[in-house]
Amino acid sequence: GLLGHALVPYLAGEGHEVDALFHTHRAFSGMPAVHEVSCDLMDGEASAKMLDEAAPDILVHAAGLTSVDRCEESPDLAALMNVTIPERLAKWCLIHGKTYVFISSDHVTGGGKPLFTEDDPAEPVNVYARTKAEAELTVLNVNPSSIILRTNFFGKGPKWRKSLSDWLWDKAASRDEIPAFADSFFSPLSSRYLAQVITDMALSKEKGIFHAGGSERLSKYDFALKFMDFFGFDKSLVRKSSMSEVGLSAPRPVDMSMSVEKIERILGRSMPDILESLESVREDYTAHG
Between 20 and 30 A from 200 (CA), which of 137, 146, 207, 265? Predict the structure, then answer.
């Protein structure tokens, strides 16, 4: 998936041995220190057997049903993928004394309060967000030593899974109009920085919920403008729009921006601003287009 596409090479580059699970697409053939393992996480028995054989010290769970509209249309599937599977994996890690890192979402924070903190109650507004909020509670109930990272990231994805920044790049390169919400806010972080944060947190002795976001609160419109400006595209292609203009099948959060003060204290460094995050993925886009 999107996050694995950045996380696996980072971990391998840091000298870690990595078992990269995949369901449909292989992505790391020939990469040293990476062993690709075919796995259907919906098959609980097969997943447990695979984990027993791989015996990882740290399990980073980045898979899930992330399409907000599909979750709304298929709530049972969303519950299986986003709640039941994390519960199984957290339990396996507890039994075997391993570290479990669960990647959650800023969608759980979307009730409208800017710079939501980890201590604020979750305010999910759609099925996807509700499953993520439920998963957080379930995971910590089953395995209180788990690390949960709420995030919203961008960066170069594989050809079969486009990210927000991939969409912007393709639109800009084709000189297509880019509608961008001025009334939806978030704290974006590049996938390259997120890979580093995941690794550092996984190796720490921390537990609980942490916000792994960028240091800036931006609207989707502002993010699009900054992306265009950074990469030298024509900013006039970006059109300010509103969520109310678009017929979305699932409600969307108004403000997903997160306070990152807690994780900054733990890591002993500031989370990157948007220009730092964009700089970290510059080569991914300019080298490959």
Answer: 137
pLDDT tens by residue, 206-261: 999 999 999 999 999 999 999 999 999 999 999 999 988 887 888 899 999 999 99
Q: Which residue has the tokens 């599909």?
A: 70
Please report, for residues 83, 140, 167, 216, the alpha-carbon distance to residue 97 in angstroms, rounded to integers and kept in the order given: 21, 15, 40, 36
Question: In order of start, what are the domains of the chain with their CATH numbers?
Answer: 2-162+186-217+254-288 (3.40.50.720)
Closest CA to 260 of 195, 194, 163: 194
Residues 6+ apart with CB under 8 A from 258: 106, 109, 115, 116, 117, 150, 187, 211, 213
Task: Say how far apart CA 191 and CA 174 lie, in whole Å.
Answer: 24
CA distances from 52 to 48, 118, 140 (A): 6, 33, 22
Q: What is the pTM of this model?
A: 0.94
| Statement: residue 57 has pLDDT above 60 | yes
Q: Please state the three-class secondary structure of 171-186 as a single string.
A: HHHCCCCEEEECCCEE
Round to the nearest angstrom and report the end-to-end CA distance of the chain. Answer: 20
Q: What angle do CA 195, 198, 200 make, to 5 degrees?
A: 110
